[in-house]
Each structure stands twice: as C-alpha cells, then as structure tokens.
Amino acid sequence: MTAGLLLTAPQQATAGPPNLLSNPGFETAGAAGSDMPSCWSKSGWGDNDFTFATVADAHSGTKAMRVSLTRRVDGDRKALVTENTTCAPTVTPGRQYDLSAWYKSNTPDVSVTVFRRDTTSGWQYWTDLQNPPVSAGWARTEVRTPVVPPNTDKIAWGLSVYGVGTLTTDDYALEEVGAAPPQPTCSGTAEECAKGRWEVIPAQNPVRSMHAVVLKNGKVLLIAGSGNDIAQFNAGTFTSAVYDPANGSFRTIPTPVDMFCAGHVQLSDGRVLVMSGNKGYPSADGSIGYQGLKDSYTFDPVTETYTRTNDMNGGHWYPSATILGNGDVISFGGLKEDSTGNVTAEKFSAAQNKWLPMNEVNQTWSYWGLYPSMILMQDGRLFYSGSHTFGNGTPGTGASIYDYDANTITDVPGLRNKDERDESASVLLPPAQDQRVLTIGGGNNERNPAANRITDIIDLKQPSPAYTAGPDLPQGLVDTGAGKRPQTGAEGKMYVSAVLLPDGKVLETGGGLHDRADPVFEASFFDPATNSYQAGLATDPIPRTYHSASFLMPDGRVMSVGDNPGNGTYNHNVSIYTPPYLFKGARPQITSVIDTQWVYGDTQRITVNRPIAKAELIRPAAVTHSSDPNQRFVDLPMTVDGTTIDLNVTSNPNLAPPGWYMLFAVDANGVPSIATWVHLGGASALAAAEQQPSPHEHTFAGELGPAKRNPAKRDSVPVAPSVAGCDRHYGTADVCVPTRFPAEVKATTKARCAWLASHKYPARLKVNGSDPLRLDPDGDGYAC
C-alpha cells in the first residue's frame, strides 16, 4: 500500500512576495485622533492592566509597537490587524499563508493569534499558532497557518501577550504559500482509491475483548475480563490479550479481576489505568442487576502486567474516565456494588499515584449515568456531550458543562432526541483547538426503537454554546435477521464507532439498528471543514454492534474488533481498514525527530523527505462501548524551511493532556506518514533553560445560563436492574432477551419467538421464575 510512486516530483511550497499586509511596520499613522497606527487596533480581553504605545525602538524604519501587561488575572492584549475590508488581507480557502514578525519580549507568555472572517457568520477566533520564546534582542518569528477553511475570505492576526511583561513588535508579513500540490496517483483499484479497503486478517482475537487500548509501543491491549460470559465469571477465568501489528501475533495476559465493563485511560507515563469492572452479574430472576467493583489496576506496556492500585471509593460498573491537563484522572457514574447508581466523583492523583479519599474530591452528588462521555475543554472544564451507554431519561437538556473548581453543572441546549442517544458516539473534532464536538446517532435500549441517524455539532468557542443540527448519518444495508436490505426512512445506528484520522476526517463505521441486534453495514467520512459526510465507503464485512470497537493504528489504518449480539455469541474476527489516502501514492516520511520528549509551548524540529501540509498529534485510543472521550487530534503549526520543519507545540495542556502521542506528517493530498511516538509533558532534553509559557486559555463558553442546583449529599440513586435492556427471566445472564422487542415485532408469542429464532438465540431458553413476555405458553419451563 505504500510502494506507489508520484508521477511528478512535488514542488517545494514556499512563501514569498508580496506582503499582503498594509502598514506592516507601523510607519503610517492612524486617522486624526487615533492613538493606533493605520490598520492596527487594540484588542484583547480579561482582567489585566495594560498599555499600548508606538515607540521609536524599531527593527527597521522609525516605529514599532509595544504592548505591556503590568497586572494580570486573566485574558490577553494584542495589537491586531484591523478587522475591516481595507486592512485585513484577502485569503483563499484551501491555501496556506506564512505569518512572520520581528519582536523583543521579556515574557514567554506570547502567542501568535489568528482570527478569520466567515462569509456567513463574520469575524471569529481561528487559532493560536506559536509561542515565540523570550528574546532580549530583535528576533524573527515565522509560522504557517493551517489550510484556510471554506467560507473564509479574510484573516487578521497579531502577537498576544497573556502574562505580565512587555512585547515589542515590528515588520509583520503575511505571504501566500506557493506551489500547488501534484495530482495524486492511484496505487490500488479505482474502488480502493475512492472507498478504501477492508480485510479480515487470518489470526483471530483470542479473547472476547470488550475494551481496546492502543499502547505507546504500537501494540493493542484487548481486555475481556469474563467477556460477558457468566460461565467464565463463575470459573474465575478473566482474560486480556496484547496484539502486535508488527507480526500479527496475540499474547494472552493474566488478568486479576473481572475487568468486564471497566473504565480505562492512559496515564501520562503510558501506563493504562483500569478502574472498576464487574463484581457480579444480575440474578437469575432479575431482582438485582450488575454490580461494580472498587478495584483498580495499572497495566504496564513494557512488562505487559497488571499492578493493583488502591481501591476507588465505591464501585463504578461502566464509569467514565477523563485525563485532565495536570495528568490527574476524573471518573463519574456507573453502578455501585449493590447495583445502585454511583453519585460520587473519583479522582486519581498522578503525583500520588492513587485514588484520592472522597473528602479530597469536589462532589456535586450528581448521577451521570453509565459511561457518560466527559470531554476535557481548553480551560479545564468538562463537557458532558449527552452520549452514554444504558439509562435514559436523565434530567435536563441532555448535555452540560461541569466546572470542577466551581463545582457547578450548567446545561447547554440543542441536543436533539436526548433520550435516544444511548450508545451514540461523541468526538472532539479535529483539530482540538477548534473546540467542536460531534455526536452521532444512538437509540434507547429501554424502548428499543430503531436507532436514529441524527448528528449534532456544538462549538464550545461560542459565548453560549448550543448544539446545532448536523447532516444526517448516511444509510447503508441492515440485516434484521432475514438478510441484508437497504435502510429506509429515519433508520440510523447505535454502537457506532468514530475514529479520528490523520488527514483530519472522522471515520464512522459499524453499529446496529436495535439494541444488540441488526447490524448495519455502512461507513462514511465526516469532514469537519465542510460539516459534511462522504458516504459510500467500503464496509467492514464483519457485523460490529454491541461490544465492538474501531481505532486508529500508528500506520494510519483502522482496526476493528468484537461483536456480541444479544444471543450471547461473540465474533473473534479482526478487520483492518485501509483508508483511500493510503492508495494515493508514496507516503511522506518523518526522517528524523530531534527529540521525542516534548514540553508545552516548545518548538520541536523534525525533517521530512518531501513537503508536507500539516502535522499533528493524535492521542492513542482507549475505547469501549462507542466511548473514548480522550480521543483528540492536536494541530502542530509549522515553521517551514524546505524539508526541515519546526513544530510549534501548544502551551495549553488542556488541549493536549500529558502522555504519549502519535506524531503524523501529512502531505497536501492528505497522505499521512507512519506515526512516530512522542511524549508530551515531561522535561525535554533540548528544552530552553528559560521559562516555558503558561497555558493560553480563552473565554470560550463564558456566558452560560444559571448553574443547576446540586443535589444534597446522598449515597446513591436507584437504578432499575433492567437498565441494560435485558429481561433476565430467560436464559443466562450473558443472553439478552430484550425487555422491549423492536416495534415491528407483534406482541405475540409466535412473533417474539420467530424474532429470537431469526437472531440465532439458543433454541430452548430456561425460564427463570415468571414469564412476563409470554414466551412459554406450554409451561414447560423453557421459552419458545
């Protein structure tokens, strides 16, 4: 897949004259009465004391701009190119521009900040590109913009000061990057180049994996625990496996407890924190539901062993797990040891390597449900997207922002069909700097309607964020037990997988039409730049519904595992998807990385074998039940000198929490390199001795409505034992006879038994006690 050659050698992309800025050196005075030079404006926000001054201490000519902060609580100040049609340069969507300026500063808290004018919605913040280092003498900073988004006609920019200190700037330039990329070749079939290709590998997954984690060495940890198999649970047989893509081998790992339906997240050092799991299956008569463990372990990718930590404060079957900007982990929700809903927040201290006592963790006593999707925002707050697994009808709008420091929860509006988002997927769209979240599909395991095809998008940069309707999910073929047929009407899918790809798109794949049944064979790309889907991709030949997962590998392909329908079976086939970008000719190569230990606000140098258009860090997957709230794609603005690229690392750890990342370089045709592993957050061997910049946070989502009133302190909330959508009066606990059959199934014994037979349920299911679904009309103790 990587051997295809480009037919023409690509031209080097370079910037050059003309400088598109008016008055780049501040030499032209402003209009009469103005205290700023022509085409420059005072800009900034927050609680700080500042001065702007045109000074004679120039790099060239007779004038320069000096901005000083003498007191700061929050915010920034900057001289900004005036946002009007006369002064702001015109740009072309799809092109890139090099920004440069000469500067002197005595603070590291400086950022190159860019705004863009959307032809529909007007001027808006675009992105921060760079943190120029402290410099006592004149120094030049240069950085390349990302590709200009669609519907953008102008940009404005300036150097922001967001710490106490002084910044002097002069001789700005904005130059268009030349040389169009060569036309891509096709190194596969026409269909592969348009749709990609799926293949099922010869080796089978040896465990019934419920959880998948891509490790810092490129291997994949697959956790089963008991694998939703009550016989394995009763025997105390708990399993995990490590898959090595380099040789296609699986290694089974001793697993200490039943990590079935645990939570997991990668710590900053690359270990995997696995929390809670399954203390007990539901009783045969359904009077008690699943029970959560307090146990917690770390998995070491080097030794491939589990080590126990201290216990959590309570059981959390189906907990959330989100890493914070300081490396701590916060967890909510799930079921306690007695099957009630857990209302306590848990916090794992990275510094102390332990779960903190409850009295050291802020508590709202709120119940967040099962696997609530809690996404870290750029200012350290958490966005609950409305995606979850099991348990519908939660109060409020379905989505909210949680401020841990203030200990407040504030609803945000706009999420459609909030009680049909069970087993939906939510992702922080590329790049993380854009702070937009996409929520895809879902259903309701209690009422069991056909899954929906709704997608909603929220822009957390807005003062009062609200979900807005996205395009409907594309439709494919569905197998409802009588062979594949086209989806119709509003039919969508739940259990969907959403995978961030290095070209900046999102692959959505897999899923089912009903709870644990009726697989949908469809895949598409969502493009964040255009808010649109590319339908009609190649589809995974293996059904991927409940307990399935898809995730990005370091070579740019996607791996898919699992399928555990309600009849209790499990599919051990492993599929690999090769996206179309790997059929577009030769891949760029990262030929050197000077340092793999990166710090925030740093500049890191790489070399490549040919021109690239962008570079990014992608956090490796830790996914279960459609949920991976830590998945993120972090843009690395570039300073380009031929094939030597300086990458500018964000100063904000909330955008890229500490840990190991896959570094991809991507050419102008979207073709990615093979990833290089780098670590963000530790001391860099090549880091400058002077201060590192502070996080540059913005006042996004700063005009929310009133916070909800937190409940009084309580121990738990009641949760129905049937929360998983299964009627336990039939068969064993790993078989899920639906509490509610799909609407098209008549409420008769004959119709229900026919549905069970068509979905390959065991022929004779033992009736445990009563027969609420009337599946045993002859009273012999067995259904159907």
UniProtKB/TrEMBL annotation:
Domain Galactose oxidase-like Early set: start-end pairs: 587-679
Location of the region described as Disordered in the Swiss-Prot/TrEMBL record: 1-28, 691-718
Keyword set, alphabetical order: Signal
Alphabetized InterPro entries for the sequence: Gal_Oxase/kelch_b-propeller, Gal_Oxidase_central_sf, Glyoxal_oxidase_N, GO-like_E_set, Ig-like_fold, Ig_E-set
Residues of the Glyoxal oxidase N-terminal domain: 240-575
Pfam family, one: Glyoxal_oxid_N
UniProt-recorded name of the protein: Galactose oxidase
Organism: Streptomyces amritsarensis
